Amino acid sequence: MSTIIASRKILIVPLDWGLGHATRDIPLIREMLNAGCQVFIAAEGKHAALLQQEFPQLTILPLPGYRIQYAQKGQFFGLKIIQQIPKIFRAINYEQRWLKKIVAEYQINAVISDNRFGLYHKNIPTVFITHQLLIKTPFGGWIERTLQKINYRFINKYSACWIPDFPGSNNLSGELAHPGQLPAHTTYIGCLSRFEPKPGVEKKYDLLVLISGPEPQRSNLEKLILDQVKSLSITALIVSGKPGTPQHEQVAPGVTQINHLNASELNEAMLASDMVLSRSGYTTLMDLAKLNKKAILIPTPGQSEQVYLGEYLMEKGYFYSLPQERFHLKTALDEASRFPFRSFHHEQDMNQYKQVVQQFVQSL
């Protein structure tokens, strides 16, 4: 391996919107470490805790997230986000000032920004990762078109745009990442999942429940599941999505709740489960597709992207989806058992992101 590649310093910064952006960056970080790069991570809170657990040897730089607050009721989700747009722009301006300082202090050679808008730099290569070229809102129409223009204006400040999906009709993101016009320097990098399929894993659970996403909806779903699962005669593992706060308890016969699993443990749990129940967050969808798992999706109420993905992928037959307001666990399990699931098979390599990363590192 050349000393030039080995000395490259790459900064990776995930968006603080749920844990999905942090977890989908794990395979990218691994690949850059495999290429001999020195990787720095910028994050705070539970995102920093998750990535520190996966990569205890790496330096994590403190960088405030956008710290978006979410509505208690789903119907106010979009309005609550729009009200906080000024705060997002202030955070973007701070990112710009912060990045100039960090690049000079640590001699950073490249930046990978997972959906954070202010981490472009005129002197070094910067990559913007997104699966949302079209940003869904409850309002549609001119608001979505305006947001797309703003989105593209920022994306085009970066050296490249990486989309974690496949081109063509056999994809996971639908019109979110397949609009009529793509930004310049766009590359589809395939499925971006930290998990790997393994043959012969013994079944341990009828159901694996992955609770994730922003508060208060994360806790709302957790309470809904815990109230209903205790009356069912099933084996289940509930992962509450709270890294950094260890907890492991038996909540009912055959039902275990744990706050967090690392990537290897969660990989094993998914493979050992007949059915997965989760939000329709995009990172989770990529994980499910990579492992070819059947799943029940419950979109976060009011989050238009997740609602769209749930409906889109159910229509394609990949997953079963239903809204939280009419969710009942036993009914959902019964209906999913009759759903004609299709596997997400793709003719392209599910690890094609590795080649994209290798080429990027070699270009530095």
- Look up the CATH topology of the largest domain: Rossmann fold
What count of helical segments does DSSP give?
13
Assembly category: single chain
Shape: globular
What is the CATH class name of the largest domain? Alpha Beta
The CATH architecture of the largest domain is 3-Layer(aba) Sandwich
Q: Which structural category do the helix and sheet elements fall into?
A: alpha/beta
Strand content: 15-25%
Question: What Rg, in angstroms, do the CA atoms define?
Answer: 20 Å
Helix content: 25-40%
Specify the biggest β-sheet.
Answer: 7 strands, parallel
Give the count of structural domains: 2
- State mean pLDDT (0 to 100 scale): 89
List the strand order in the largest sheet: 3-2-1-4-5-6-7
Order of helices and strands: HEHHEHEHHEEHEEEHEEEHEHEHEHH
Total beta strand runs: 14
Q: How many angstroms does the end-to-end distance come to? A: 14 Å
Query: What's the CATH superfamily of the largest domain, by name?
Result: Glycogen Phosphorylase B
Stretches with pLDDT under 50, minimum 5 residues: 1-6
Keywords: Transferase
Domain Glycosyl transferase family 28 C-terminal: 248-335
Protein name: UDP:flavonoid glycosyltransferase YjiC, YdhE family
Pfam families: Glyco_tran_28_C
